[in-house]
Amino acid sequence: MTAPSDRPLAARLADALGDAYTIEGEIGRGGMGVVYRARDERLQRRVAIKVLPPELAFQQDIRERFTREAQTAARLSHPHIVPIHSVGEGQNLVYFVMGYVDGESLAARIRRRGPLPVEEVRRIMKETADALGAAHALSVIHRDIKPDNILLEGTRGRVMVTDFGIAKALSSTSGATLTGIGVAIGTPAFMSPEQAAGERDIDGRSDLYSLGVVTYQMLTGKLPFNAPSVAGILMKQITEAAPDIRRSRPDIPEDLALAVARCLEKDPESRWPTADALRRALETRNVGDYQPTSARRAGPAGQRGSEPGLGRSSSRVPDLRSRGNRPQVGRRRPCA
Question: Is 144 a catalytic residue?
Fold first, then answer.
């Protein structure tokens, strides 16, 4: 007889779901799992079902944590958050059922169209910040904001953020197990400095940094930080100031450029204090008297570091590497 682990994942999932759902096809996969489109036979609606990576699902502590985080994320009810309907186990799989979004991911749109129009970017950034504000109010931090997790629904492209709590769910108590099998928690190109440094106690400002990276990519079609290795990218996230976005996209309004720059501050204390504060700034097109830390550190003659105290929120970039969490070359370190 064929061992359960040797059967196709879709077949195992179908057995676990029984008659309640009919799988219609795979719609995406990545380090966080595989997503299938399915039909809810009882409620006669289309849903999406995400399955935890099978190589992790056999570990009881990870299954339990995944279930707890999915239950926490299910508390989120917001027009820009994909709802979670249920979470379940079966056939040595762990899965959750969520709302189906008829559209495309932001990642797909950027691949298809390149840099996006300024006002479209402003709307997407604002709606994502709105979703993050609702989650953060319930102490739910996303930890993996990236274009793949921002879905655009329908012809208008309404933002629907997905995968809340999944990155935390895949972090075991020690992190050693996940690191050993090479599963990255979070995405290096979009990680905040504190995530890149392996800090475990992060807050909503980490999500805002990631949203800044996403917005930079929406506006320019490229990432602010690139390197040939994961360790190189993580080091740049920790130590290197983001380039001025207006050098790549001169037509960006000053308020939007400054909103992105504030998201990308290395020190969380220098970022937007909350996602709601960012949303309001985008709506009013007013960022107050904020100036990027790099500009504040430049003296009258433009020399960096000549006047490090300028500006009401001037904060030095923290040396996150001094806390014993330097990224390891050739090793993807999980962050929770």
Answer: yes
Identify the H or E element spanning 45.
strand 45-51
Q: Which residue's entry shows tokens 């990870």?
A: 62
Contact 98, 82 (CB under 8 A): yes
- Six token digits for residue 134: 């609702």
Q: What fold does the segment set 103-323 form as a domain?
A: Transferase(Phosphotransferase); domain 1 (1.10.510)
What are the domain boundaries of the chain?
A: 24-99, 103-323
Residues with Cβ within 8 Å of 28's Cβ and at least 6 positions away in sequence, in order, are 34, 35, 105, 148
Given a cut of 60, whether residue 151 has pLDDT beyond it is yes
Domain spanning 24-99 has what CATH number? 3.30.200.20
- Which tokens in the block code for residue 220? 């320019």
Q: Name the residue type at position 86.
A: S
**197 pLDDT exceeds 70?**
yes
Question: DSSP H helical segments within the chain, as ranges?
Answer: 9-17, 54-57, 60-73, 106-113, 118-137, 166-169, 176-180, 193-196, 204-220, 230-239, 245-248, 254-263, 275-284, 293-297
| Start-to-end CA span in the chain (Å) | 40
Instruction: Work out the average pLDDT over 192-200.
Output: 92
Q: What is the pLDDT confidence band of residue 110, given thresholds at 50, 70 and 90?
A: very high
d(CA 100, CA 24): 12
Q: Which residues have a Cβ under 8 Å from the Cβ of 78 and sit 6 or more positions away?
A: 130, 131, 134, 135
Q: What is the per-residue pLDDT across 61-73, written as a single tens digit (0 to 9) for each?
A: 777 778 887 888 8
Report residue 245 as tokens.
């976005």
Which pair of tokens denotes residue 91? 């056939």
**Whole-number Å distance between alpha carbons of 5 and 93:** 10
Instruction: Give the least confident one: 6-10, 40-44, 98-102, 175-179.
Output: 175-179
Cβ neighbours, 10 Å, residue 256: 23
Nearest-angstrom CA–CA distance, 73 and 177: 24
DSSP-assigned letter for residue 298:
B
Q: Of 144, 148, 163, 207, which residue is the catalytic one?
A: 144
